[in-house]
Amino acid sequence: MDFNETLESALKALSLGDAVALPTAAGILLAVDAGNEEAADRLAPGARNPVLLLAEERDLLQYISALDLSVADQLREAPPATAFRFSGVLQVADAWLNSDGSIPVALSKDTFSFHLLKRFRRALVLLEADAGVMAQYAGHAPASGVELLRQGYLVRSFE
Question: 112-138 pLDDT, tens per residue?
Fold first, then answer.
């Protein structure tokens, strides 16, 4: 599968409420539409450390109320796999939010996630998945994100 085919498959899966596996700086993570309440109800009970993923700093204005703009600069300049916790989050399913209404937020630092977010036009929630969950999800335990992409396992329905 080439880049565009993989991107199209991921977009289709996300639009149907499915999860996709994304290779990130933090490892292989599951990604789902942040605002999809049904997907959140299905996945949140077993989820660990959900993080709201945005394409770029201007997206913070759409998803965070009363944003301190100086934090946007810090988030943009942060190394990959860094997230900042925000309260006053908008357009995100309640199941992803902590009891205080906050969620860690990160900006995309890789090409695939950036293009996926820009084309999907909605935020994603990233979820940690241990090797066992990923093996169940993708049919095997991937050695790396590149391996996952090469074998065509990037997009799978998560049930």
Answer: 889 999 999 999 999 876 555 555 544
Domain annotation covers residue 21: yes
Nearest-CA neighbor of 103 among 116, 122, 84, 121? 84
User: CATH no. for residue 132?
Assistant: 3.90.870.10
**C-alpha–C-alpha distance, residues 136 and 19, integer Å:** 13
Q: Rounded distance, CA 68 to CA 11, Å?
A: 31
3-state secondary structure of 75: helix
Count of structural domains within the chain: 1
Across 48-59, b (16+ Cβ under 10 Å) vs e yields eebbbbbbebeb
* Owning domain of residue 102: 3-150
- Structure tokens that stand for 30 in this block: 């599951």
pLDDT of residue 142: 34
Cα–Cα dist 44/115, whole Å: 25
